[in-house]
Amino acid sequence: MSAPGVVSAEQPAPLDEEDVILVVDDDGSIRELIADVLTAKGYTCATAESAEQALEMLPTRNVSLVISDIYMSGMTGVDLLAKVSRLDPDLPVILITGMADMDAAIEALKKGAYDFLTKPFHLDNLAFSAARGLEKRRFAVERKAYQEFLERTVAKRTQDLKQANLDLILALSEAIEAKDRYTRGNCNRVRVMSQALGAAVGMDEKSLEMLEYAALLHDIGKIAVPGKILNKKGPLTVEEFALIKEHPLAAVKMLGELALLRPAVPAIRGHHERLDGRGYPDGLTGDRIPLEARILSVPDAFDAMTSQRPYRPAMPVDAAMDELCLGKGTQFDPQLVDLFLEHAISRKLNL
Ligand SMILES: [Fe+2]
What we know:
By secondary structure, this protein is α/β, with parallel strands linked by helices. Helices cover 53% and strands 8% of the residues. It binds fe (ii) ion (FE2).
């Protein structure tokens, strides 16, 4: 007896019961002879009297091998081969032909037939060819299953890594808010609104991911600012405000060397830039401000206006929207403000 998985002409390895060999021939005697021989070898067979009928049966049966005559009334075996190859490229097809049809058989092999048998064929040759065809099918199915397993594993690990990165960044953003109690919740609100605005602009998935990181960490540089300034009740002095204005560059120093976050740095660095060049830290103008930074600045300003500060109460949402409109072209990118308002992105937070 052969070892498992080893195929020989004398003892072909039987298939799982659900695997079916489909025998296609318009000559009933040959069709039944082939099916009887293979059934006697332990295989499950189904028969079709035409290529058309075979094609109808394929979706309903777990066919692992097709054995078909070439010349039949209606569609030929070569035509059937072409259709089967399109439906299931890994499904082997063995064609049967008369001795005079060698050219057709060679042509069929060129078109992807797994093997061909010439009539009259020896029954052992039929069994041997069927066994090889089924081995090829098994190998293809196992290879596909392994490939799908690998793809699922990579996707799962990628998702796990992404979640681990996000958890780390969320922890960092909580550290910012623990220090500046008046901006509690700001990072997450800016995150949600930035994502919505980025999606409205048409950003791709990777860019949206970096925008998310930037939104969560945009104020991380405030960790370098004394807490008594961040939480001061009352107006800031010029010197104190100058210290706060250092927070974008402080963030660049903290994050700039981290490969994971480097793509998010331009948005963080530029989130207080203004279109008219009166922003900080670089005084950039117009389109020289990175798009991600221009996006981030709109929800960040909106959230700052609608949040309570130690030196002023929260502004009503409608008034904050009016302020955004007033800042179009000077502080904010006009198209981004329009998108922000048009999509009522602020409403997503039920503000
Ligand atoms: Fe900021």
